[in-house]
Amino acid sequence: MRLPRFEYVKASTTGEALAALQAGDGQTRILAGGTDLLVNMKYRIERPATVIGIRTIDELCSVTTGSDGSLHLGAGVTLSSLAENSLIKESCPGLGRAITAVGSKHIRNMGTIGGNACLNTRCWYYNQSQLWRDAREVCRKAGGNVCHAINGSERCHAINSSDTAPMLVALDAEMVIQNREGERRVLAREFYRNDGVRYNALEPEEMLSRIEIPRGNTERRTAFIKICSRRGLDFAMANIGAAVSVKAGRCSQVRIVIGAIASHPLILEKTAAVVEEGGLSEGGMEQAADTARTELGTLTNLFSSAGYKRQLAQVLVKRVLQELKGSSRNKRRAGK
Amino acid sequence: MQRRSRQERGAQVMVSKYSVVGQRHPRLDGRQKATGRSEFSDDVYLPGMLHGKIVRSSIPRGRIVNIDTSRAEQLPGVKAVITHKDTGGLMPGPDTVLLCDEMVNYFGDEVAAVAAVDEDTAAEAAELIKVEYEPMTPLFSMKEAMAEGVPPIHNYIEDNCADDISMAFGDVDKAFSESEHIRTDEYVIHPSHSSFAEHHVVVADYSLPEKLTVWTPVQSSAIIQMSLAQNFGLSSSNVRIMNLNTGGAFCGRGSERPHHYIAAILSRKTAKPVKIICTADEEFIIYRGGGKYNFTFKTGVMKDGRLKAIEADLLHDCGPYVETQFIMLRFTGFQLQMLYKVEASKFTGKLVYTNNPPYFFHHGAGLVAMRFAFGAQLDAIAKDLGIDPVEIRLKNAVDKGYTTLSEMHFASCGLKECIQKTVKKSGWKKKHGKLPPYRGIGIGCGVLRAGGKGMFDHDTSAVFIKIDEDGKVSLVTGLPDMGQGSHTAMAIIAAESLGITPEDIKVIAGDTDITPFDAGAISQRGTFTTGNAVKNACSDVKKQLGKTAATEMGVKPSELVFKDGKIFSKGKPEKAILFEDAVYNTLHSSEGRFVMGRGFYNPPTEGVSGGDYKGNPALAYSFGAQIAEVEVDPETGIVKLLNMTVAHDVGRAINPMAVEGQLDGQVFSGMGQTLFEECIMENGRVLNPSLLDYKLPRPFEVPGIEHIIVETNDPYGPFGAKEVGQGPIQCTSQAIANAVSNAIGHHIKELPITPERVLEAIRQKNKNQ
Predict the structure, then answer these.
(1) pTM for this predicted structure
(2) Which of these, A87, A116, A86, A119, lies nearest to A99 by C-alpha position?
């Protein structure tokens, strides 16, 4: 498949990129690794008039530590380099697992953390060629008024398949968004929206510049699991990111987030409450997994049946808790 | 070192009588392929070449009201726009109109085409063509298509029944009435796609009206040449087929497709060469992959497991165009009585026209589905009777010298040997019924012919050999190599025959202006049929060289042996002449003979009669057995294929390395069809037309594979060789499916065995308990 025509702007500072974004009148897209955008452009799902390259913006391509010990991941850092990052390995191994779960080595070499965090939602009825889409009424995601995934639905149900998103939500990450006026911060849990069309909080003239991950206490444990058909080069049938602080057998700050089964990562609050209550005992974990099944809301049959998604969610909760139980705590030493 | 059985040691000794055959040989073009230097049809760029793009129907069924091409014609860079009226009424198939005339019959049907200076302009122009349709109620299910009073898809076939056959051998009623146990099961196999590494592509040069040259990946240059010549009213030698390399064929590239004709017509109209390459989603839209099979198997047995009667019914969706599906029906009918000794067999098969995409052969000649269904039922029968699945197979397995009910004759047969060796190597006896929960082991067996008549009245391959004065051999063949290593196999056969090395041989292929006739790499005929032709051509060469050598050495030509680069007399090996010297001396003498060999081979069989389907279509048949071991995750339903033990009776391994490659490839593809791949159809469209959403496995999914090469030395094959083209895959699906059934304790009746289906099967099993 061939790319459509577009103008290319190579931005060397964030300011240049934002200026170009604003000038583009909503017809402009940011190109980081291109592993998502270029494919979508080949399918003519996205036809931006202008594409802004941000790979040479230094400030987007660094990993730093904040004064409060938080980890600042530039949106343009490639997934491959983050996979090797020792700070991530030590303080939130779950995020490391989520990063290495993305695509394949080739895709991680090109793809960025910002790109994966902002991954466009996908749908069987949308991620298709023009010819294929022409055969049906224009769906909500393509600007129409119908949803082919759930007939009669008032919203778009395209699926957020990002592997890093559920983990970022579980880590209480903050998304730092820039526009011409300055920057604003949005918690990852609020960044993602339960709508396949407006799937995140970014406005057309805004861009994600970095992701900040709170340092977390020394008792924090993190884990990530992805279930997919193939070993690699596959979107998840379901994935899960979880973080929990375990001290003297008691669990606190429990975050359990299921991804790739809905338009946004699903935060399982009731399930988390069960864990805070029952801890990581066998019975507690079983109970948490049963609870997970009940708090998923409406699911589609996209990519796999709703029933199977529920089953996977239940299994993933159990398995992620087992992994958390066996995993080690935050190894980041003071001052690092 | 592992201890070898006496039989294996015997095989080793037998191999050693050959110098080249039986040795492991990397492909002659391996280095070129691995370094990206091999050329494929998309690498062809000709001066002035245009790019074509096909406009496809966006509805599954309807009447074309109007096609407005005006905007496309005005687009700068567009050189031609064609619709049905430009085709001269050409019909690529008996039920297929080139570029839809009145009706479109499936989503993606070709409606118009453009040629432009580059691919982008062609794509833009194609989008500018506006087709107005009057939609009609599409028929997606066979039930809808067979209902009374529905408007037929083709007005000349009122009941939408494209084919309806009945093939019976033996006294079916009697065999069933004598059976002590009868079982009936239904099986569903969902569509899967060939997913060729090389997309459909054609470059056609029809600049001059008297000559058409086509570069394209095909399994048979002869078939496409014949069809194009007939349809364009050209003499066949004026159609030149250039088949550089073929990036995978899997039984799906036997014949021409509409895009071949479309490119030729665009080229004729513009007097420029035209290239058309299908995009990733077009590969799935034009489909021509495996269809959906609905099998009913009724089988009667005696209590000791002896098979009495097999009756199968196949209701098959053939999309709007019948393509090769009628052949698949007949192949299936024959297969019922080819693998196991049975007293009677009956097959009824029906093809139903629908508005789903057109189907085609898919890897395994459309027989993997049938083999899965019967293999699964045989396991269920064994369970009913309390017999080990291996025992029931051994009890009924055909032997050397067996003649089937339809009079197919097996001059060599290693089926039992394949079963016994896989059983031993896999540790079946220690594992079957003794594995931990959710671990399973299963066996599958298969048979396939090596070449044979049916496509043409003959099954001929012809070969030329020329030998330059330095003793280097050029072997000219019309047999394509689509990845299976056939050219290397031909070089090995020639090297063995002439007593030289494969490196001394250059294979020249893929140009019908040069290469002699070859029916092609279809029906697993390459090694057997073209291999025999190579041997015959080599005999011709040896006659010519033998005269020189015999005269020089003062011996009789009949005493000569060609071996190790030398020609010598059987009785006096010390008296030898170098092969290359013999060649040189034959030319540089008063006789001045340039050594050229020619040979052809056409298996001396009568073929199958049209009336009662009886007769022997092929001289050689290959057999195989495979054992799979799986682990099932009962919570996610995900099946992990742990290992496969694979035996195939190849007659003789011309190149064991290539045999293993074929075994690996077919385990891979069979595993895909069994566990991963499914074209999810909705309203005549594939919902997952990309390799992202269509779950083609990756190399990481390949299990550990144990290869067992069984050599039965076929009396007709070149050096005893038969086939390894599509025989092994016949066993794979059954073996894996039976292993899954064994793991979960529930009879799997649907392919592919997706995680959701596994969970459903476990639920069913728990419900029944």
Answers:
(1) 0.96
(2) A116
